[in-house]
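FORM 12-B: Structure-to-Sequence Request
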């Protein structure tokens, strides 16, 4: 699964899911063995992260919402994704 970004121990991934169980654009986030699937609108679809890390992911998603949408489109069309800058 392509890694879009890593920051503060958080790994963010996105991949093409033809016929997957989540029917909306989303990312997969992992932190210290915990995982969450988060829609690009910020809705947690599955799993959970510690509160502090979730706030960091929310902030990162807000800053990079256009990049996330562009990557979703690229991957959906079978094209190469691009990395997104980490939260600083």
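FORM 12-B RESPONSE
SEQUENCE OUT:
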């Amino acid at each position: 699964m392509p890694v879009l970004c890593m920051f503060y121990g958080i790994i963010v991934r996105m991949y093409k899911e033809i016929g997957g169980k989540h029917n909306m654009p989303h990312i997969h986030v992992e932190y210290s063995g915990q995982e969450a699937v988060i829609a690009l609108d910020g809705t947690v679809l599955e799993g959970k992260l510690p509160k502090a890390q979730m706030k960091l992911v929310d902030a990162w998603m807000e800053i990079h919402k256009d990049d996330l949408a562009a990557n979703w489109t690229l991957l959906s069309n079978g094209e190469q994704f691009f990395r997104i800058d980490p939260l600083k």
